[in-house]
Amino acid sequence: MKRSRCANTSDMAKYPAMTNEQPPPEGSVEHVLGVFHEFRKRIEQIHVPEFLGIDVTMSQAKILMLLANEREVQMSDLVRRLGISLSTMSGHVDRLVEQGFVVRRDDPADRRHVLVAATPAAHELVDRFHELNAAQLRRLLDRMTRDERLDIVRAFHHINRAIEALPPQADVPRKDPSR
Description:
The chain is mainly alpha-helical and 179 residues long. It has helices spanning 9-12, 29-52, 58-68, 75-82, 86-98, 120-141, 146-164; strands spanning 73-74, 102-107, 110-118.
């Protein structure tokens, strides 16, 4: 017996009438999240080939992003902020040290702590991440009218205001690093 293409629940989600769900009201949070999800999927489709040329894992990229914005960070602080175990963090940092992206040293104030810092090579790699994003955005903006670009500017202003209203990062719950 041949199955219908829409028998898959992910296919059914494309057709609200088949799932007995109504689309979210226009302008609702769920509506915006749905549009964002579609946007993210499309960006990933055109961005992934460039991103795959960068030879670090996603976990390592997160570490580099944190380190690129700070002078030095205690290893225990990285563990807490990324919500991973110390042994997992040590493995990631070991590989980043081998690749020349990170240096580590004992904390002179307390030798029980290890300090980790980004190298110039790490800063170059982070700059490359940002350049890839900017280049992709430029290609998309070049395809838009002036009015459409102004709509994007207004949206970014709204998002920036919402970001400014968020509580400090320390208040954001993280997953348990012991897992």
